[in-house]
Design goal:
This protein has helices at about 15-25, 25-30, 40-45, 55-125, 125-155, 160-185, 190-200, 205-275, 290-320, and strands at about 35, 285. By secondary structure, the chain is mostly helical.
Amino acid sequence: MPSVPSSGFPLAIPALAAQWNEITPAAVKANGYLSFVPASAHNDRQDRREVTGMKISLKLTLFLAGVVALFVGLADALIGQTRALVASYDELLQTSVKQADLARVTQVDFKKQVQEWKDILLRGHNPEDLAKYTKQFREAEARVRENSVALSLQLQDRAAIRLLAEFVVRHEALGKKYQEAYDTYVGSGFDFKAADKIVRGMDRPPTNLFDQVVARLSAQAEDSVKAQQVVAAHKQILALAIAGGCLLLLTAAGLLVVYNVTSRLGCLKLISDKLAQGEIAGLAIDIGGNDEVSEFGHSLKGIQAEIEELATAKAGSSAIPS
C-alpha cells in the first residue's frame, strides 16, 4: 500500500479548524466556498452537485455576444440618429433657409431693376444702350414679380406675408409709373429730368418693405438653425449616455464573471495546498456552481476521499501488533 506523509493527519478536528480559519481569507469564508463542517454533514452532501449556474465557456460566449450586440445596437442607433438629423436639416433647408435665400435674391433683383432704370436715364440717348438697359430692366422687373409670388406661396409667418403682399402692390404701382416715365423719356427726346420727376422717390417704400421681409426671414432661418443645433447636441449627449451605460453594464458583468471564477479558484488552491500537506481532517470541499471550476472541486473531493482511505488504512495497519 502507498505510504503517506510521515507527518500524519491531525486527529483533532477543532484544532485543525482553528488553524484553517487563521489561513483562510475572510472574503473566501464569507462567500461560502470553504467551510469546516462535521463529518456526518459532509458525507450527506459530498456527492451533491449544483444544478444552477453556467459553464465558464458559455458565460464567456454570452459575454462576447453581449458585446457584439451592444456595438451592433449602438451602430444602428447612430445610423438612425444620423438619418433623422439629415432629414431635419433637409427640412430646414427646404423651408426657412430656402425662403430666406429666395428673399435675398428677390431683394437684389429689385435693386438691379432700380439701377437699370437709372442707366436708361443716363445712357438711353444712345439707341443701343437704350435697347440694352431696357431689356435688362424688363428682365429684372419680371424676376422680382415671379419670385415675389413664389415666395408668398411658401411663407407661413403672417407678418412676413403681410409685408410681402404690401410690397407686391407697391411694386405693381411702381411698374406702371416706370412705364409712364419711360414713355415720357422717349417721347420728349430723352429728357431724363422729366422722366425722373415722375418716379422720384417711389422706389424707397417697396425697398424698405422688402428689407423688412428679408430681415425677418433671415432671423427665422438663424433661429431654426440654432434650434436644430441644440436638438443635435441633445441627441449626441443622449447617445453617449446610453453607450456609456451599456459599456458600464457590460464591464460590471465581465468583472462579476471574473471575480466569480478567480475567487473560487483561490479557494481550490487553498484546498489543494492542504491536500498536498495531507491535512484533511474536518476539511469540506464545497464549491458552488455547475461549471469547470465546480467540476475541478468535485475532482478534489475524489482526491480527498482517496487520501482519507489511505489514512484509514494506515491507522488500521498501525493498530495490528507486530
